[in-house]
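User: ok so my PI wants both of these folded by tonight, can you help

Assistant: No problem, let's get them done. Here's the first:
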Amino acid sequence: MFNLEGKKIVVTGGSRGIGAGVVKALDSLGAQVAFTYSSRKESAEAVLKELSGNEHMITQLNLSDEESITTAFKEILTKFGQIDGLVNNAGITQDQILLRMKTDDFDKVLNTNLRGTYLCTKAVLKPMVKARNGSVVHITSVVGQMGNPGQANYAASKAGVEAFSKSLAKELGSRNVRSNCVAPGFIETEMTNELSDDQKQKLIGGLALERLGSVDDIASAVAYLLSDNSSYITGQTIAVNGGLYV
């Protein structure tokens, strides 16, 4: 695949699901990884034990708390000295149809997913611009592209991240800092494992490839965008959705 030897990469929300899969893939490709968790330190430690290298690190980070983000990235920069890549993966959902959605739940999702992405990205820009090198990858969602009933807040946050990424790409291209998105569709994670067989079949019925995606499918796309193989790609979104939305 892609060689990430020597690259120092931060992954937010790396203790489970897609984030954990990305962390493991980056480790296997030679990167030094710092990944964050919000509350499940034991889950993060379990992922850390699976990694082959010993220079990786974990740190707690609350996406809705600016001070927490500042502290986490200061700790990472102190240990790593530089940051070559950032994967904005962490996020939340608070699903409900709009007629019943509480304003606090709308605000919480936007503040965490969109504002949190802004804060994490801003935290790595100075070292990347100084080094004139860097790649930021945002995990968005097919929901941000096509919408979904009961997820107006989540869809808006992910669509906002995609527009944010495009603007960032135009701002920083002259400094050789790239910004791209990976937009997953339905991926086999802890959440989809809770679905019944009938529910899974209904999902699969709408997919051109007739299967749910795997965490590895997302991790491969992320690794590509972090690698030098994608050095002429910025401001783009790679849709990894099995043909759900084309």
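One down. Here's the second:
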Amino acid sequence: MKPIIFNNTVLRDGHQSLAATRMTTAQMLPAAPLLDGLGFGALETWGGATIDSCLRFLNENPFDRLDKLKDAAPRTPHMMLLRGQNIVQYTSFPDDVVEAFIASSAKHGMDVFRVFDALNDARNLRTAIRAVKAAGKHAQGAICYTTSPVHTPEKLAAFADELAALECDSICIKDMAGLLSPRIAHDLVKAIKARHSLPVIVHSHETAGLALASYLAAIDAGADSVDTSIAPFANGTGQPDTVRMLAAMAGDARAPRHDIHVLADLRKYFEGIAGELAKFMSPANDRVDSDALCYQVPGGMLSNFRTQLVEMKMAERFNDVMAEVPVVRAALGWIPLVTPTSQIVGTQAMLNVKFGRWKNLAQATMDIALGKYGRPPGPINGELLALARKQSGQEPMTGRPADALEPRMAKLREELTAKGLAPTDENAVLFAMFPRETDAFYHPKPAAPSAPAVAVVATASKPAPAVVQPSAPAGRKASYVLTVEGHRYETTVEDIG
């Protein structure tokens, strides 16, 4: 059999999983030529949370990052993670926005689009995969791996039939939470290979300590490629380290060849970067955590969520929130936990711990219950569905969510022009997903004079409410109705001093 192909994730999932997606382009560029010369099957350089992070935290244009990385590493195909109809955001977008985003990404040098849907609803993959094919690029359809009473390896293997019917060029088993055990990895790869001749890629995380062993089992079953990273942005909640993976395959006829001296230089370089990003890295993300097999939270979300709980003065409630995650997940039809569903479930778990179960529903929680993200794999909890219907005044939808959305590209160009911004497709798709962040990037405000800090716990998933109407007198706690981009949120704001 052919040697296994290693893809490398250090420039995307590696630091997303272990450093809250805070690695800058300037920190990546010195390493890019070395990575380019190692002969990886692909370098994952974009997508996932990196586009949000560029705009929100790093003051970078995401397309500029892609241009620079493509110039610095031109020989190896570049790969990105795309959330189907959600693109790289948390909600569905009209088909024309999805198509424009993919065409723009391809124009800037993206080669491989790993496309997934959080619910494994093929209807939410159709437009993205067609757009990738139309751009002449590689469309890799992903199966979000999870375990639950309504998920079985047989059903997951059968989903490969739907991906093949969409004319994907390859199939990825995406094990975002590190749940895939060696025996199931072997059998799942075998089952897909028996059904289709498409290349099969396995992506996992070492969160529960299973990934390396599962990779070896998948390779024995005929997998074509696996994802690795480079320490210290590897192992733990990230992918297995490349050198570690090479050592585990020593003597295997399918072992690939990568220069371990260059890999050692890269490790040394990234150790320096990890020092610069230390405040975003937690020792808890480096250790094996078998509890992950219970709450099934992906590595990238664990890294970001720990940071968010610290910021919200709830760090000591981490275990309570994680224990609530399976409760929320079951109530929402046993949805797989991957962006955006992992963040939605995590946020609702936090709200349940903070205010009491179902006392404060996030808008996105209601949207999942009402079918706005697609078809859940299992039934929605009756109590939760009734609350979502009552609070929203809406009935569950049964069709493809994007079919209910009007085209937006023409309007987005008008909005950009009105703001004095170039109405390019790149600006339009960024503005569609991250309007405030994109506007702030192009129109930075002068630094405000320092003022006494006021800490508030905000339960809305999006910052800067457009309308705030107090419904209770001021005091230690107050209830508010917030309208953000047309979505209504009911929340309690607590003064925590």
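The radius of gyration is 22 Å. Residues 453-475 have pLDDT under 50 and may be disordered. Good luck tonight!
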